[in-house]
Fold:
Amino acid sequence: MKRSPFLISAMILGYAFLYGPIVSLIVYSFNDSRLVTVWSGFSTKWYGELLHNEQILSAAWLSIEIAAVSATIATILGTLTALVLVRFKQSRMRIALDTVVAAPLVMPEVIIGLSLLLLFISIEQLIGWPAGRGQTTITIAHSTFAMAYITVVVRSRLAHMDQSLEEAAMDLGAHPLKVFFLITMPIIAPSLMAGWLLAFTLSMDDLIVASFVSGPGSTTLPMVVYSSVRLGVSPEINALATIMVGIVGLSVVIAGRVLYKQQRSSLAKEI
Amino acid sequence: MMQRFENANWGKTLVAAVPWLWLGLFFILPFLFVLKISLAEPQLAQPPYQDLIREVSDGVVTLVLNFGNYQLLLEDSLYINALLSSIKVAAISTGFAILIGYPMAYGIARAPTHWRLPLLMLIILPFWTSFLIRVYAWIGILKGNGLLNQALMGLGVIDAPLEILYTPTAVYIGIVYSYLPFIVLPLYATLVRLDESLLEAAADLGCPPIRQFLLVTLPLSLPGLIAGAMLVFIPVMGEFVVPDLLGGPDSLMIGKLMWSEFFSNKDWPLASSLAAILLMVLVVPFALLRHMERKHEEMDQ
Structure:
């Protein structure tokens, strides 16, 4: 096809718009000056200060714990939901589940956070659990909104996989549970991994829901970043951002290459 | 054989029951509590609201519903203005996101096949990095002595720094930037299926490119366009981080107002009634989104 100069320049500008801010964050994390946007020489001192900031380190550790547990719960729940949506026969319940599980994808986080907090308080008044709010309540909240994303990811893989292997195993008398673990799961494993990583990042990133359902003593990384950002720009936050962008960028590139090699043939057929 | 069949049915029920139970308990039930607390009276205690069913006088237990919160929301122009301004911000940002996102999605869909996946990955990648940090990056760019002003003054375009940070413009930039991937992905999904022979036929019949776009491409991409627009519009209606960090103190949006009613004023019942009203407003765009997604799935099959 002919290349339209309008399309190409629109794409270059669009990608510049997406990546310009991220690049500026990274560049100025190596700035010597405390004034983030005035360049005064190369330095890595903000990374050093970051490593000695106890508050940021403990918040980061709490966030990682919550993200790992909630991503695991969400992967299990999201996979079950995807199975119901793809493999079960059409019914009203299935359509209803489809709508309910899609809602957290777009629901404003202030509503999710407030509603879960009110739920936790009411349950606690009734049965005494969860006693106070903190790591457990944040983990439950994150599992709930992340399962929607995992459902989307796993569902598209399930819908596109070849079902004849499953059918063959069933015809040979394998128990459905065995079929799932021995045949379905290895086939959809890349999407389970991608979904888990997505849920992990979503949890690591969440400020709003966590602020509503956390309690004293459970401050997550985004909560620390937010309170520091409200006071203005700080080169330490730039350094933290660079580390996070680096980890995410690296893992996405690696995962992308693995997936790309595995699925090049099938994807080429699809698109 | 019968035994086996029944076992499978039991298993199926169990598989369906787990997500239903979780979503029922942690997603549907909480909304009922929002409705309940929105009808409660605030009090200075922990938790800061009164029970709906309580002893009014000696031994008389009744249900006390307080519609005062909703009355306040309707009477005080602050809340109605916040709702209207949220709708305005969400609508304008969605418009700009379409203007920037449509050419990108179209460009990716028309790119050589081996280019499409890397280009798509580049759209998704920023979504994987922290939202908070991406919004934070704009503070350094937009502030008085920030990168944008330095660049513009260095180029001699302007003499004095522009004041962008803490204005509505900054809020629009931040929102369009954060939500751009949500419009590009569904649009790409519909545009990539577009049958190019339709465009060739139109061209052969003498249709100029602009009319080809307006009469063929645009109508055929409408499902993806509307789905993408709703994926931006709905969450932006309740957006808090962007107006809080990039907007001025007078930037009025319902998500920000809910946050301050809850965290600063500790008025949980009022925050709940705001949430209830926001939910009701969002039902229509959500139904539209679901409708478009179902259409897309049917096309898939």
In short: Residues 2-38 of chain B form the longest helix (37 residues). The radius of gyration of chain B is 25 Å.
